[in-house]
Amino acid sequence: MSSKIQDEKAREQLIDLAAEFYDQFAGGKIPEMKLPTRTKSNIVFDEDSNVWVYGDRTSTRSANSVRGARKLLKAVYTIDFLAKQLDEGRSSTLRELYYLSESWDNEEAQFSDQDESNQLVEDLEIVSEVTREDFHMRPEESGATLMGPLELREQTRRGEREIHCQKDVGEGGYQIPNNPDTIDFLDHDIDFVLCVETGGMRDRLVENGFDEEYNVLVVHLKGQPARATRRITKRLHDELDLPVVVFTDGDPWSYRIFGSVAYGSIKSAHLSEYLATPEAQYVGIRPQDIVDYDLPTDPLADSDINALESELTDPRFQSDFWTEQIELQLDIGKKAEQQALASRGLDFVTDTYLPERLTDMGVL
Questions:
Q1: Domains in the chain, start-ordered, CATH in brackets?
Q2: Cα separation of the two ends of the chain
Q3: CA distances from 340 to 192, 221, 335, 351 (A)
Q4: What is the pLDDT of residues 221-270, one digit of tens each?
Q5: Known binder of ligand: residue 162?
Q6: Using 50, 70 and 90 to split pLDDT, how confident is the model at 357?
Q7: Catalytic residue chosen out of the listed positions 54, 77, 99, 214
Q8: How confident is the model at residue 268, as a pLDDT?
């Protein structure tokens, strides 16, 4: 679908939503907007698709109370702003939307903080079934990058351009755009996709030529991955039929980074089937690695212990592998970073650790 047609579709969906409020008024009904209840208790793990989705419970934003009327007023003002933005071919950030509301002529429509405006944009995504990227709404720059044997075409304000993600970029790689659906994959020599949590490890892999030696596309997650990063990873898997592996630190928060890539996150449960890659595999630092390689470690903090115990009951980690590794980590009371592998030499990760692990997993 061309970007112009996509913009028109997004605008139509927004206008249809505003028209619903008008029709409710005209029919003598109190305007309302129904949404899935956005609480942790209404997030369920769909066993068929292996991703987080909203459950059956819904809540209603109704103008029958001052609080509800204020929320709908803010929704209408935001819809008007987004529709104009699409008309003009402009874009804005989530942060800018919060500040822009200060200029709206009705003080009741202005946002009290950015969390409120962020949540409203997510609400509009859910009820309109259009993503914020198609609203031309951007988060603050994530800076996540790709490096590897992939040739693509991207759409820019200066027209289309073709880029090879090794030959045409510097050591920093190709920066993933806010909306990866504007990219066309042209050609590639990729054997698998390797998602890497930290910048230090990403730089080590590139410096050691791991992307060239093993025909791997290195995706820098930059910590908890942004939506654009998860979306392009899913597209690479689904459209190019590429295996995806995730390489993170060995701590509970990093396991959740893997879970976010593979199964989706609670915060974006309405987009899990658009963002998540359930077939992704974990190749990151394991508690068993800490023991086997005698890696430098840090002690588990109380928050780490609580997070690990929570993961023992998390549907995303219900397997013999995860149960065994998490229980081992609780037993040894230690965690380790990716860069701890450097204690065995700067080339250990690319010459030994990853090749052996990926061969065992059947990726190499």
A1: 3-138 (1.10.10.10), 145-360 (3.40.1360.10)
A2: 35
A3: 24, 19, 10, 15
A4: 988 899 999 999 999 999 999 999 999 999 999 999 999 999 887 777 78
A5: no
A6: very high
A7: 99
A8: 74
> Is the model's pTM score more than 0.85?
no
Which residues are within 8 A (CB) of 254 and not within 5 positions of it... i.e. 6 or more apart? 197, 248, 284, 285
Residues paired with residue 156 on neighbouring β-strands, in sequence order: 159
Cα(17)–Cα(35) distance, integer angstroms: 13
**Dist CA 101 CA 95 (whole Å):** 10
Distances (CA, A) of 208 to 212, 213, 350, 361: 9, 9, 7, 22
pLDDT tens, residue by residue, 173-201: 999 988 899 899 999 999 999 999 999 99
What is the C-alpha to C-alpha distance for residues 245 and 316, in angstroms, rounded to an integer? 16
**How many Cβ atoms from other residues are within 10 Å of residue 143's Cβ?**
13
Answer whether 235's CB lies under 8 Å from 243's CB: no
Long-range contacts of residues 79-83, Cβ cutoff 8 Å, at least 24 apart: 79/14, 79/15, 79/17, 79/18, 79/124, 80/18, 82/14, 82/124, 82/135, 82/136, 82/137, 83/11, 83/14, 83/15
Cβ–Cβ < 8 Å for 220, 357: no
Helix (H, G, I), strand (E, B) or coil at 218: strand
Catalytic status, residue 99? yes
SS3 at position 188 = strand
Alpha helices in 164-319 (DSSP H): 199-207, 210-213, 227-240, 252-263, 272-275, 287-292, 302-311
Say how far apart CA 79 and CA 75 lie, in whole Å: 6
Q: Look up residue 42 and give its two tokens.
A: 């209404």
How many whole angstroms separate alpha carbon 297 and alpha carbon 302? 16
244 neighbors 261 (Cβ within 8 angstroms): yes
249 is in an annotated binding site: yes
